[in-house]
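[Meeting: bench + compute handoff]

Bench side (C.D.) handed over the final construct sequence. Compute side (W.E.) agreed to return the predicted structure before the next meeting so the bench team could plan truncations. Sequence as handed over:
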Amino acid sequence: MDRRFFISAACGASLSLPIYAAPTGKANKRILFFCNHQGFDPPMFIPKDSKTLDSPFLNLFKKHHKKMTLLRNATYSGGGGQHQQPGSLLTGTLNRVMPKFSTSIDQFLADTVQKDSLFPSIVSRATKPLNHTYITSWTGKGKPASSYFDVAEMYNGLFKKLTKEDFLKEKTIIDKMAKPLLQKRKLLAGPEKQVLDAYIDSIHSMHKKLLSRMKINPVHKYTKQVPTDLTTPAFDLQRLRYQLEMSVFALMNNFTNICATSLCGTRGTQLVFHDGTRTSSDYHALSHHGKRPDKWEEIRKIELEQLQSVSQAVDLLDSVPEGSGTMLDNTLVVVYAGHTDSATHNTNKRPILLIGGNLKHKGNFDTKGQNSSDLLVTLCHAMGKPVKSYANSERDINGVLL
C-alpha cells in the first residue's frame, strides 16, 4: 500500500468522522424562529408601560418574563412595499426583489454551526405562501428552503420513518471507510500497521458513538396522534400548533438545533379556531379591520391563538431539565412580526420578541430605530458563529444582549 495514499485516505476520511461523534455533556445551542407576516395588534402586544412586559399577549409568557426581551421600534432600512417587507424577516434583504440576495439566518446557521444532528434545519409553513415575498427561509443558492406544510408529512418525516433502524443506515459510511483499509492491512508491516490499526479502532469507536447517538429519547418521543385532514387553509392555526410542537420535540431528540416556521395572512378562506368556531372572513381581510369592533375582536383572537401555540412550545422547552437549568436556557425562541400594525400594514418600528437562550435579557427595550438586520448579527454570535455583518446590517446588538 502506497504510504502517501494511506496518509491521504486516512486523513481525508478522518475529517468526516466528527459528525458521527456522540454529543458532549455540554448542551447544544438551539434556535426556534416564528414569523407572523401580518404582525400583532399593537395595543395587545406592545405594553403601555415601556418599563414592563405587561400586555395581554405578552402575559401569555408571564412566567418567562425574566427570560424575555421585547425589542421595539426596530426598523428595516431596505426597500420594498408594505406587503413585501415581511419576507425580509430572516434574510435582511428582499430576495427576488432587491438586487442583493442573502441567505436566511436559519439556513446560514444550518450550514455553519449545525453539529451532531440528523437535519441541518427543520422549516415549516403553517400557510402556503401567496408569492415569494411571503417566503422567509432561503438557501444560499437563492431558492426557498425545503419546508413542511402538511403536518402528517412532517410527522412521518421526523418521527415515524426515522426509526432507529433507519438511523443506523448511516453506519454504512463508516463501513465504507473501514473495510477497504482492512483489506489492505495485510500489505503493511511494523509501524504502518500499528498506525492503521489505531485508525480502524477509531472508526469502530465512532460507530459505537453513532449507535448511542441514534437512540431516540424515550422520554421525549413524539407519540401524539397527528390528524391527516389539516391540509386546507382553514386549519392554519391548528397546523401551526402541531408544527411548533413537533419542532420542539425534534429539538429535544437532537434531530436538529435550528427550526423555523411561519404564518401569513390567508386570503379567501375562513379560519377555524381551536374551539371549532370560524372567522367571518379570511385572515388578510380581517387584518384590515379599520378598528371595527367585530373584525378587531376576530383578528385579536387569531393572533392570540398564534401566540398561545408559541407559549405552549416555550413552556414545553422550559419543562425539560438540562444542565443547571432547562432546555429553554439553551434554546433561543425568536418571534418576528412582519408588520407593526396589521390594520395599516405599517412596517416601521416592528417588534421582535426574544425568549430564553441565555441572553442578557432586557425586558422591554427600545431599539430607537435600529436596523433589524443588526439583530441577525447578534443571533449569529449567540449561536456560536461570530460574523461582522449580515445582509444590510449597520452594527450589532451584542453589547445589549450578549
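W.E. noted at the follow-up: The chain has a mean pLDDT of 82. C.D. will use this when planning the next construct.
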